[in-house]
Amino acid sequence: MDPLEIARWQFGITTVYHFLMVPLTIGLGPMIALMQWRWLRTGNERFLRMTKFWGKLYLINFIAGVATGLVQEFQFGMAWSEYSKFVGNVFGAPLAMEGLLAFFFESTFLGLWIFGWDRLPKKIHLATLCIAVMGSVASAYFIIVANSWMQHPVGVRLEHGLPVMYDIWAVLTNNTALVAFSHTITASVGVAGAFLLGIAWYHLWRRRRDGIDTVDADGRVVVGEAKEIQGRDKADHSVWIWSLRVGAIVAIVGFGGVAITGDAQGKLLFQQQPLKMAAAEAACQTGTSFSVLAIGNVGAKNCSEVKSLIEIPGLLSFLAEGNFSTKVTGVNALVPEYQAKYGKTLPDNPIYGSRAGETIQYVPLMAVTYWGFRLMIGFGALAAFAAVVALWLTRKGTVPSSKWLMRLALLGILAPFAASAAGWIFTEMGRQPFVVAPNPTGVDGMYMFTAAALSPGVSAGELLFSTIALTSVYACLAVFEVRVLIRYVRGGVVSAMPELDTHDDHDESTPAPDDVLSFAY
């Protein structure tokens, strides 16, 4: 067993799992703040119900995100101590800002929002949520600043073989960080939009199934009420149709932003990490054509077994340079350049242990970069297309009665999550064999091979045990979170506003007023 591979699997599992919660938190927070602001401005109960229902789901997701994110901090010191030693002089600043400033504001003011209902003046109560949301966004920014420095190190000089930061402004305004941040925020907006759309579709479908809402001869909705069921009134329909259509619009806008920022990020990557992008396109030979589909062993560690089946002339040049004629350097030409700059074998240094002298494989795993890039774009486009279809199908005030369409709408929630996960996997895996990628125009020697980043005193058995333990705990957390979310989603608005239900006998899908999350307003 190779300790390095186990450690990479461990960090990959915990990171991808944690990041499933992050975009929903970032994207849903501003939407809930907007709902509460509308309630404050109009006094319309529809917006109060929306705020409380979506706010409950937001809190469940936030709690799970905090619990899983803490594990990553410990991994830096336990499994990746050499890496932490190398980047510590740089990472200290943005991570301190994230923990002491952003996360402090986020958690403190979110607590005030949770317990401030009917205790704080309405405007101040809304302000606490806005500050918490801004804290979430700032937290994401500082984390991305740290990650982007690994992708493109700037603002540092080498002292005794270690990078020392001398320009904090250069680190904070790293062009890689700015485009990655905007890309992440717009992706998060798309995730939140799909989340609203899918759940709202489910509730509108339930109202159709239960005969509460009907349609007239023109297919327009006739909104009804179920007097025997609290909370299933006309205002309930308004909550879901507003949520669905707003979610669809937000998802479309989010994907549009993802496309624009993704194009900017891709052009930067062609400059900063050309081998990553060449592998993502299976561009083995220098040229201008974009590979839509490649055949052969895309998982190979070289291009000898890869052949493009469908190509679009000029598109690769446009993605890289903004024109259709500039040739883009291919994998086969880039590998010798990397070998000339960074060596053909790992240095004969004790830090590499038994790996010293091994041949460096500069081409990242093409199956991951190639398909990760396409899955990211494909799932994002699918979510945007679904949002457009949803707007058209609900133009008359309700959803079709088809159960299969309802299931597709719920499954559609997963599409932007999958796109975000695929994007991060592509970003991190494509950087290999570097944990800190070299800056082509930066300081010589400012890079670190992943093989040098592992803690020297950690054995394969310890890493395997901790990986199995963490994966098992995370699996249990996933089951718990999904069950709790499903429970509150099925309960509808009443699950977040039990005061709407005056019955003593509570349905299994509707949490009782004294349930475990009753503290959250």
Map the helices and strands.
Elements: H1 3-42, H2 45-78, H3 81-115, H4 122-151, E1 156-159, E2 162-165, H5 168-172, H6 175-209, E3 214-215, E4 221-222, H7 234-272, H8 274-280, E5 290-296, E6 306-312, H9 315-321, H10 331-342, H11 366-393, H12 403-411, H13 414-429, E7 434-436, E8 448-449, H14 460-491, H15 493-496
Antiparallel strand pairs: 1-2, 3-4, 5-6, 7-8
Helix pairs in contact: 1-2, 1-4, 1-6, 1-13, 1-14, 2-3, 2-7, 2-14, 3-4, 4-6, 6-7, 6-11, 6-12, 6-13, 7-8, 7-11, 8-11, 11-13
Shape descriptor reads globular
The low-pLDDT segments are none
Structural class: mainly alpha
Rounded mean pLDDT is 87
- Which sequence of strands runs across the widest sheet? 1-2
Assess the beta-strand content as a share of residues: 5-15%
| Biggest beta-sheet profile | 2 strands, antiparallel
Q: How much helical structure, as a percent, in the residues?
A: 55-70%
What does this structure look like?
With 521 residues, this protein is mainly alpha-helical. 64% of the residues lie in helices and 6% in strands. The protein is built from 15 helices and eight strands. The strands form four sheets. A two-stranded antiparallel sheet has the order 1-2. Helix 11 packs antiparallel against helix 13. The longest helix is centred in the N-terminal third of the chain and has 40 residues, at 3-42. It is globular. The two termini are 50 Å apart. The mean pLDDT is 87.
